[in-house]
Design a protein that fits this description.
Elements: H1 2-22, H2 28-37, H3 42-149, H4 153-167, H5 175-235, E1 245-247, E2 250-252, H6 264-269, H7 276-279, H8 283-294, H9 298-316, H10 327-350, H11 357-379, H12 385-404, H13 410-441, E3 447-449, H14 452-461, H15 467-471, E4 476-478, H16 483-502, H17 509-537, H18 543-558, H19 560-571, H20 585-613, H21 630-645, H22 651-673, H23 683-701, H24 718-729, H25 732-738, H26 751-768, H27 776-800
Antiparallel strand pairs: 1-2, 3-4
Family: Belongs to the SEC15 family.
Protein name: Exocyst complex component
Keywords: Exocytosis, Transport
Length: about 800
């Protein structure tokens, strides 16, 4: 067993030695470590084996050296022989090298020079190649600088884009290209700031010049409208020549076109037609839009532009406080608004999406509401119809101008109907002053006509036809006063003025006809009627003037049908049309005439009262003077002369006035007898009073006004007559016997009236003669009076119960 282990150990040592001999020394360590890992004392045996192997190798080396030693000695001997030859050869080589160096020194210098030149040439070629890459970059950058200096910012942005994407990447390794690349974002921001600054300047500029743009646009719209009106006038088939009329110093025709001697406005219409682009430089907007689009920030620009324009719209829509004072204030206001929306319309069509139709419609709707509110407010301050008419014309031109740019303007035409009402009100106020002035200047006497020319002139102004007056020789008088043709002319002037407002409102002839008739009705029923009523009530208007007013209103009433024909001729709308409004002038003049008639009755009665106040009866006189009182004769003469003036009045009016005067006179005389302050009346005073009543009856029977039948006028004094007859005849027995019977002679005598007068006479009898009780006749009369008084009292008490 031990032998086997020894044999294995020897074999293992042999293997390890072979491995050490055949492997690299770096790998010996693991091999040696395996020796120590084996059995104890194994390394000693290995060392012994190793020593044996070394001795074996030494023997082999010694054998080999012995074998080759003679050859080595021979080689050394030969080498020593060659040494001398080698030294000789070395000397020859050294000498040859020296001579060669000396001979090639110049060539070497030239070769080095050539090499240096070749290196320089190569460097230059490389430099040229690199410069050829860099020069386009520098040229583009220089071009960029020039574009910035010349404010060609959009082109500069395109150049920047080329630099960044094409040129700079080719030479990005150079420092100057890196600096350029770092500068480009800063330049872009500068361009944005500069373009935005230009846009702000543009916005400020158009805010200042929008009125000029609007003025030009409105002038072109007005010229276009005038041209269309002229064409429509020439193409119309109607041959009725409307008269030319004058209104406030300007000459007009029926279609409202002004006829001015100065044709300068027409010359201006021949000027070159200018557009918003001709008046405003829009390049800052386009440039800024392109710049922001290239920079990818278009939405920011659009939002900023729209926001600023909305702010400007609000500023434009703010009117001046005194805008309503002059037409120029309205014109400037409209010009600015039109200029604003003309610019927006141009931006809408010239750019893609900077503003949209929805945005312009939104701004327009906001502006339209504000415009309507402003016009409502400021037009209400206008009290001059000429200014209101000018405002209407401006609104029409304003609406037509914006309608031509596609903006809806129907609400503006609706507003014009409100302005029309304001215009009518100002017209009525103005015409009220005109009517008052006409009435103040009127002499209220018939118009004298000396020649046929004067007659034709009056008839041309007022439709008057009277066959009897036409047959009369000159000079002659027309029944109406000079205010009648003036009023008729002024009514026609108002119709013309109303027609002026109706033009260009895009309304039918029927609607215009209705407007004219309503305006005329307002003038007749409100203004003229009020002026007539005020005139009639004025204290300085006497009976003669009132008579003339009645005559005037009669002729004006008759002329109403000619006014209707006048309106029909203007509008060409048949009066038989279902919805045609009728003129209410008939009722106006009838009311005025009735008021004048009532005022005649009132003033006539007042005049009678004034005469009655002059009465100075001596109520205690013993007997009458034998003639009528002076105040009464004056009153009758006044009435007689007054009723002569009534010859031109309608018969019924004159008869009513005469009957009213007689009744009032009779009532006043009766009140004078029954006055409570009058305590005593003598028989002489009754007789004197009877003489006055007889004069009144004579006046009534003289037919001061024709047309009364029989004794109709005298019946006004029947109460007085029966009362005085009762006292004059002293027929109390008949009165008391027949009282209450229809056939009574004193049917109109009231017991209370007779009793009051009888008591005044009874007191007088007692006072005048204190010795009357001693005379039998006086005593009998006194008893009779007392008896009659008792019976009258019983009658009065019976009536009251």
């Amino acid at each position: 067993m031990a032998e086997n282990e020894t044999q294995e150990c020897i074999t293992e040592h042999e293997r390890i030695l072979q491995e050490i001999e055949s492997t690299d020394t770096a790998c010996v360590g693991p091999t040696l470590r395996s020796i120590y890992d084996d059995q104890p004392n194994a390394h000693k045996r290995f060392m012994e084996k190793l020593d044996a192997r070394i001795r074996n190798h030494d023997r082999e080396i010694e054998k080999m050296c012995n074998f080759h030693h003679q050859g080595f000695v021979d080689a050394i001997t030969e080498l020593l022989k060659v040494r001398a030859d080698a030294e000789k050869l070395m000397g020859q080589v050294t000498d040859t090298n020296r001579r060669l160096q000396e001979s090639g020194r110049e060539v070497t210098c030239q070769t080095e020079e050539v090499i240096r030149c070749r290196i320089q040439q190569r460097n230059m070629a490389t430099t040229v190649e690199k410069l050829q890459l860099c020069i386009p970059v520098l040229e583009m950058y220089s071009k960029l600088k020039e574009q910035l200096e010349s404010k060609r910012y959009y082109a500069a942005l395109k150049t920047m884009e080329q630099l960044e994407k094409v040129f700079i990447p080719r030479v990005s390794q150079y420092r100057f290209c890196q600096i350029m690349a770092e500068n480009l974002p800063r330049l872009r921001e500068e361009i944005k700031e500069i373009s935005m600054s230009d846009l702000k300047d543009f916005l400020e500029s158009i805010r200042k010049h929008s009125d000029k743009v609007g003025e030009t646009a409105m002038r072109q719209a007005q010229q276009h409208r005038t041209f269309n009106s002229a064409v429509a006038k020439q193409a119309s088939t109607g041959h009725y020549n409307k008269p030319v009329y004058t209104l406030n110093g300007q000459t007009h025709t029926h279609n409202g076109l002004m006829m001015d001697e100065d044709t300068g406005d027409e010359d201006e219409g021949d000027e070159e037609i200018l557009t918003a682009q001709d008046l405003v430089d829009f390049s800052p907007v386009y440039r800024c839009l392109h710049i922001y689009t290239v920079l990818g920030d278009r939405e920011t620009f659009e939002n900023y532009y729209r926001k600023q324009r909305k702010k400007q719209a609000r500023l434009v829509l703010q009117p001046q406080a005194n805008m309503h004072e002059t037409v120029e204030g309205y014109r400037r206001y409209f010009n600015q608004i039109v200029g604003f929306f003309v610019v927006e319309d141009h931006i809408l069509h010239a750019t893609q999406g900077l503003v949209t139709r929805a945005f312009t419609d939104e701004v327009w709707n906001m502006a339209l509401s504000k415009i309507i509110a402003v016009l409502r407010t400021h037009s209400s301050y206008c009290d001059d119809p000429d200014l209101v008419l000018e405002l209407k014309n401006l609104i029409v031109i304003f609406a037509d101008t914006l309608q031509g740019y596609g903006f809806p303007v129907s609400r503006l035409f609706d507003l014009l109907f409100e302005v029309r009402d304001q215009y009518n009100e100002t017209l009525l106020k103005k015409w009220a002053l005109v009517f008052r002035e006409i009435f103040e200047q009127d002499n209220y006497s018939p118009i004298p006509v000396e020649t046929e020319e004067e007659y034709i002139l009056v008839v041309s102004r007022f439709p008057f036809h009277d066959a009897e007056i036409e047959k009369q020789d000159f000079p002659k008088k027309l029944p109406m006063s000079q205010s009648v043709p003036q009023i008729y002319t002024q009514v026609k002037e108002l119709i013309y003025a109303s027609l002026k407002f109706s033009e260009s409102l895009h309304r039918s002839s029927t609607e215009i006809d209705d407007m004219l008739r309503k305006s005329t009705n307002l003038l007749l029923t409100r203004t003229l009627s009020s002026c007539l009523q005020n005139l009639i009530k004025k204290p300085h208007i006497g009976l003669t003037e009132l008579v003339q007013i009645i005559i005037n209103t009669t002729h004006l009433e008759q002329a109403c049908k000619y006014l209707e024909e006048f309106i029909t001729n203007i509008t060409n709308v048949s009066p038989e049309t279902v919805h045609t409004t009728r003129l209410y002038g008939l009722s106006t003049f009838k009311d005025a005439r009735h008021a004048a008639e009532g005022e005649i009755y009132t003033k006539l009665n007042q005049k009678i009262d004034e005469f009655i106040q002059l009465a100075d009866y001596e109520w205690g006189m013993a007997e009458s003077d034998g003639r009528a009182s002076g105040y009464l004769m004056d009153l009758i003469n006044f009435l007689r002369s007054t009723f002569q003036v009534f010859t031109h009045l309608p018969g019924k009016v004159a008869q009513t006035a005469c009957m009213s005067a007689c009744k009032h006179l009779s009532t006043s005389l009766m009140q004078m007898l029954l006055d409570t302050e009058l305590k005593q009346i003598s028989m002489g005073a009754i007789q004197q009073f009877n003489l006055d009543v007889i004069q009144c009856e004579l006046f009534a029977s003289s037919e001061p006004v024709p047309g009364f039948q029989g004794d109709t006028l005298q019946l006004a004094f029947i109460d007085l007559r029966q009362l005085l007859d009762l006292f004059m005849v002293w027929d109390w027995s008949t009165y008391l016997a027949d009282y209450g019977q229809p056939t009574s002679k004193y049917l109109r005598v009231n017991p209370a009236t007779a009793l009051a007068l009888l008591e005044k006479m009874k007191d007088t009898s007692k006072k005048n003669n204190i010795f009357s009780q001693f005379r039998k006749n006086d005593r009998d009369k006194q008893k009779l009076i007392e008896t009659v008084v008792k019976q009258l009292r019983s009658l009065v008490n019976g009536m009251s119960s």
